[in-house]
């Protein structure tokens, strides 16, 4: 039997701080899960990637988390695979992240997906709260997790918070200390994504320059993954990863320190290594290499990005 259950967990006059919408079985079940991390680049959702996440849930309860929007993922998930339930929980305040009913829903989920939107809402509402700790427990217990766009942004050890709105590559390269280039660390701890910062909508929005700027603001071991729209990276706990979808995934790391990385000055850095992978190609995040592509090199001189000199 299928039905739709709408529950406002915390009521207000019009828009509740928490909304929970569930399709499928109203009773929770417990299934054997398999860990894995779905990194999606925004735009059109990759059905193959969702099927992968559903399979790893063991057919359990699939939970979508977001800070706004609608429960449109519920029928989408049900269409793609067998799940006990598909539910969406929308949290609109930081206080909601301490709601016992919210924590209970996370504790009973066998797959968790962070939808797109504004990642600053995720950071300011969820970071360092009981909800974030519940998410971490589920990850540690082997529950698969994924995210797209804003949801992708908070999965790595490091993140671009968008606390002061977004920033373009041109702006970031001209001043890597622009207040809009707001990076942070420690929202979640996923060992396979240690030292990694992600970016979405990568090629259409020309974000490779700003990802390089992000890397210069982080520690020397930081690495970047940029994911195109309608594309996803499926990551195993051991760091092995596969590209699925329509377009490319980009893997960046610095080979040397920045020549110039100072407030108010254009960035200068040489020989940033870049791998571009296409669907069905694989990458080893632990060793940061692949048998499927040869890296290229990019450099930034006076805030301008160009291929590195041979």
Explain this structure to me?
By secondary structure, this protein is an alpha/beta fold. The protein folds into 2 domains: 16-37 and 45-152, 3-Layer(aba) Sandwich (Rossmann fold); 156-310, Class I glutamine amidotransferase (GATase) domain (Rossmann fold, 3-Layer(aba) Sandwich). It contains 8 helices and 18 strands. Strands 1-2-5-4-6-7-3-12-13-16 form a 10-stranded mixed sheet, with helices on both faces. The longest helix is centred in the middle third of the chain and has 11 residues, at 130-140. The N and C termini lie far apart (64 Å). The model is unreliable at 1-13 (pLDDT under 50).
CATH-defined fold name of the largest domain: Rossmann fold
CATH homologous superfamily placement of the largest domain: Class I glutamine amidotransferase (GATase) domain
Secondary structure: helix percent: 10-25%
Task: State the end-to-end distance.
Answer: 64 Å
How does the helix and strand content classify structurally?
Answer: alpha/beta
What is the tally of beta strands? 18
CATH architecture of the largest domain: 3-Layer(aba) Sandwich
CATH class of the largest domain: Alpha Beta
Bin the strand percentage: 25-35%
Summarize the biggest pleated sheet.
10 strands, mixed
């Amino acid at each position: 039997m299928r039905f739709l259950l709408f529950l406002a967990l915390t009521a207000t006059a019009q828009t509740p701080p928490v909304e929970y919408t569930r399709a499928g079985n109203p009773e929770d079940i417990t299934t054997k899960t398999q860990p894995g991390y779905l990194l999606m680049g925004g735009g059109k959702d990759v059905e193959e990637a969702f099927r992968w996440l559903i399979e790893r849930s063991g057919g359990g309860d699939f939970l979508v988390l977001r800070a706004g929007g609608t429960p449109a993922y519920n029928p989408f998930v049900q269409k793609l695979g067998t799940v006990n339930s598909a539910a969406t929980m929308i949290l609109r305040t930081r206080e909601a992240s301490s709601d016992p009913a919210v924590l209970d829903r996370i504790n009973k989920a066998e797959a968790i997906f962070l939808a797109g939107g504004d990642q600053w809402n995720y950071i300011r509402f969820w970071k360092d709260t009981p909800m974030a700790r519940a998410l971490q427990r589920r990850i540690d217990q082997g529950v698969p997790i994924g995210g797209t766009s804003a949801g992708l942004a908070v999965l790595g050890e490091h993140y671009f918070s968008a606390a002061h709105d977004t920033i373009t590559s041109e702006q970031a390269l001209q001043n890597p200390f622009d207040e809009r280039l707001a990076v942070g660390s420690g929202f979640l701890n996923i060992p396979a994504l240690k030292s990694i910062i992600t970016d979405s909508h990568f090629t259409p929005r020309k974000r490779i320059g700003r990802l390089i700027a992000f890397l210069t603001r982080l520690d020397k071991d930081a690495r970047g993954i940029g994911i195109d729209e309608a594309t996803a990276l499926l990551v195993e706990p051991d760091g092995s990863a596969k590209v699925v979808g329509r377009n490319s995934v980009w893997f960046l790391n610095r080979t040397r320190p920045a020549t110039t990385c100072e407030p108010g000055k254009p960035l200068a850095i040489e020989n940033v290594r870049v791998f571009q992978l296409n669907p069905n190609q694989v990458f080893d995040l632990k060793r940061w290499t692949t048998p499927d592509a040869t890296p290229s090199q990019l450099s930034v001189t006076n805030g301008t990005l160009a291929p590195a000199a041979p």
